[in-house]
């Protein structure tokens, strides 16, 4: 087993995680708790008050740097969308889909499938901006509330596509290397588990969503958020329908060209997001010139500022939370220095490894442990930081069991990414929440029950396979 000694830092971090989760359950703001957690961790590690105070600020800066690309893409897409709505082009862009998306259940599944396919090729970050800007207005008109659009995008993109990662294969390679098995084995073993997790989770989520829509229980809070982030397009600044249609087609062609370039140049993650963001800036500029004419210089700046205000308003509440949870990974050393014990892989990963070291070995316990360990390592909101750990633990467990390494590895990968990749951790849900204009914590709450149900059933399937 992995030789690891937990320190007071690990237990302090664990205590604060429990406190934060309890506060979230009671719908309390957790920013102050996260700030206190950072300070106390720094105090316990450095034994210096001034270094701990510095650490709070530096952790905020670290979190802001990590989140900045996401803040910018959301802000730019918002600015572009505002311009498209002012000009009337947005209405032309979505009109072809109205013939297909006639009700909320078609909207849920069509949006999800589009999101999944696009995310397989380019990962969810750039897909969020494209799918959200294109489908959100249509889905709302078809009766699917913004929270439903966000759920669909989350579960299909950050859940199914990111956890399987069949095209780019970054996730299975990380876990396969850690488990010392070929990537193809992890991919093959993940197929029945991904099918189970994907079907159970998306169907369960749609069932709960459908009940709320039919009973009229959708919170008025969603309507307030939606209305605050939308701009009326009743006054179309580009009067010619032919011009609007041409520009709508041009925009779709430009984004399609982006997708082609991503595939040819093998752009992933941040690079793919940058390409989408840069294209959106040029579209914003072009449409502004045509729509606002002599006022275009002022309006471009005005819409960019509004977009940035929206982005920072949405992400401002997340920075203290992200700052605390980033400390669970490599950020701790960057902020407070080399305080963790030799051989530590970060506080969160150490806690996961410690759990694996203290459970009996059989197929049921092994599968359950891999699911829990994967979920724990996903608490930092990354999804990828701990999947190498689950690969290592899978290798250890499979040696004791006499087999099943690929299935255990795939299970841990699924748990880690579904939890941390952007389905139930609020600070990882911000991109989708921002694009859809919903509250990230409410979105996490809606996703939690379907994801937990999915993980339980998927774990049972893994036990049977092992």
Automatic annotation (TrEMBL):
Protein name according to UniProt: Transporter
Keyword Membrane part of the UniProt annotation: yes
TM ranges: 6-25, 32-50, 62-84, 105-123, 246-266, 272-292, 304-327, 424-441, 448-465
Record flagged with keyword Nucleotidyltransferase: no
Organism: Clostridium beijerinckii
Keywords from the named record: Membrane, Transmembrane, Transmembrane helix
């Amino acid at each position: 087993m992995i030789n690891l000694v937990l320190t007071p830092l690990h237990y302090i971090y664990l205590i604060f995680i429990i406190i934060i989760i309890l506060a979230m359950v009671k719908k309390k703001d957790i920013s102050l708790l996260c700030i206190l957690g950072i300070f106390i961790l720094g105090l316990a590690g450095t034994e210096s008050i001034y270094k701990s105070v510095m650490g709070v600020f530096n952790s905020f800066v670290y979190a802001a740097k990590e989140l900045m690309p996401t803040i910018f893409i959301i802000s730019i897409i918002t600015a572009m969308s505002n311009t498209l709505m002012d000009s009337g082009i947005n209405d032309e862009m979505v009109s072809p889909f109205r013939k297909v998306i006639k009700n909320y259940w078609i909207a849920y599944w069509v949006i999800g499938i589009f999101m999944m396919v696009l995310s397989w090729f380019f990962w969810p970050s750039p897909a969020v901006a494209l799918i959200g800007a294109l489908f959100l207005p249509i889905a709302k008109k078809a009766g699917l509330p913004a929270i439903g659009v966000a759920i669909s995008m989350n579960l299909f993109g950050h859940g199914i596509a990111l956890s399987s990662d069949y095209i780019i294969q970054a996730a299975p390679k990380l876990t396969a290397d850690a488990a010392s098995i070929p990537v193809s084995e992890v991919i093959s073993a993940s197929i029945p588990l991904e099918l189970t997790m994907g079907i159970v989770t998306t169907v369960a989520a749609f069932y709960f969503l459908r009940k709320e829509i039919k009973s009229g229980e959708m919170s008025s809070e969603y309507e307030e958020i939606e209305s605050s982030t939308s701009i009326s397009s009743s006054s179309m600044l580009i009067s010619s329908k032919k011009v609007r249609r041409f520009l709508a087609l041009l925009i779709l062609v430009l984004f399609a060209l982006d997708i082609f370039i991503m595939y040819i140049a093998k752009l992933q993650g941040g690079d793919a997001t940058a390409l989408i963001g840069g294209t959106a800036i040029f579209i914003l500029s072009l449409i502004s010139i045509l729509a606002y004419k002599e006022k275009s210089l002022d309006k471009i700046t005005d819409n960019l500022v509004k977009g940035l205000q929206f982005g920072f308003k949405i992400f401002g509440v997340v920075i203290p939370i992200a700052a605390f949870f980033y400390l669970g990974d490599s950020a701790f050393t960057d902020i407070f220095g080399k305080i963790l014990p030799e051989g530590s892989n970060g506080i969160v990963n150490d806690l996961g490894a410690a759990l694996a070291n203290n459970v009996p070995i059989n197929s049921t316990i092994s599968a359950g442990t891999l699911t829990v360990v994967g979920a724990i390592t996903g608490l930092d909101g990354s999804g990828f930081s701990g999947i190498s750990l689950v690969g290592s633990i899978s290798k250890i467990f499979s040696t004791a069991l006499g087999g099943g390494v690929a299935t255990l590895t795939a299970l841990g990968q699924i748990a880690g990414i579904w939890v941390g990749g952007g389905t139930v951790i609020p600070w990882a849900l911000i991109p989708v929440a921002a694009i859809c204009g919903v509250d990230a914590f409410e979105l996490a709450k809606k996703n939690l029950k379907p994801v937990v149900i999915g993980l339980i059933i998927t774990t049972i399937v893994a036990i049977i396979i092992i």
